[in-house]
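Journal club prep — side note

Before the paper discussion, L.F. wants everyone to see what a predicted structure for a comparable chain looks like in token form. Sequence:
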Amino acid sequence: MGLSFPTRRGVVCLGLMLFGLVAGCQSSAGPDALESVNAGATGAADAPPVATQSFGSGPVRVDLFLDASIDANDYRDGAALAVKDLGAGQLTLTAHDLRAQGADAAGKIKQSAESGAKLLIGPPSLARAIANGPSKAAAILLGAEPANSAVAIQSDEIGAAIEVASYAAGAGLARIMAVSTRALTASEAQRLKAGLKQGGAQLLDIVTDPTSADGETKLAHLGQAQAVLLIGADAPKVAAPALRQRGGLGANVPFLGTFAWPASAYGEQALDGSLLALVDQKALKRISTRFQAAYARPLSLEAAYGFDAVAVAAGIVRAKGQDGLDAAALRTPSGFAGATGVFRFKADGRVERRLAIYRLSGGKPVLQDGAPSGF
């Protein structure tokens, strides 16, 4: 398109609680790494779950709770790999698999907190029990929604949408129309508006029902857009072709997307030239080989998030000592570096993760700009 996109590699690489995973600013990992993650945990073991497993023997306790609502094996194995790679003899990870024992989850979590665990990690289904625990233990949820004092480690679509739209705005594509194929909550819409404004973008409007009278009115301004942000997993196949065909959208106006887009949609002709915000593939490749060797299956994002939850604990203990791991330490503004790149937890408990920008070319994602290595 003849546009000059700004590099983000100039972000200061100082002040991070490094875990030995980031060795500088990012460069291309290539599409192979992307596909290895999309492959998922196809080789996950089908063995019956073990009620309690421990990894490491350090003085700082981290307790992980697993149930049927998540891919328990991947989260457990990713977390165990982090203890081996980063624990430095300081951590003991105890995985409590509630699928095996049928125990009272809230009671088990309470017992863990009261017996001295410094960090509790668990799925969103256990959020209430983890966030309302009787102790001052720090808590990380294996989801995208925080709860009370518990932070959430997974990125969500709105956060990624803000990242790619802000990147486009930095390239001079500031006038952005958002089209969503799913209803946005009031909170999501507010976050999107605030995030785009902070990122220097001018949000023309948000269209959630293009066939309605309101949607048609909003789309009448589509010709003013310098980029179109598509939200929703089916948006690439449903909205993109329709918007190209309806007219009014410049041929060189790119679509903006996120990891919510399925890889199966990348070949849509209407999407050629689109910009995507994806989890940093180079960071993922740093542990993918070790995960494959240890567990005989490809690294999944679930395993990577499990790795990062424990890596947070390792980084804090390394920087602040055994007594430094608490809820306040989770929100250090300089952030953390892990298998999913550089991230930090905001005051509201949501994660802010630096994502890489890819461009779709001929149906394949090509690295446009690597994820920044700091905030």
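L.F.'s comment for the group: Residues 157-278 form a domain with the Rossmann fold fold (CATH 3.40.50.2300). Keep this in mind when we get to the figures.
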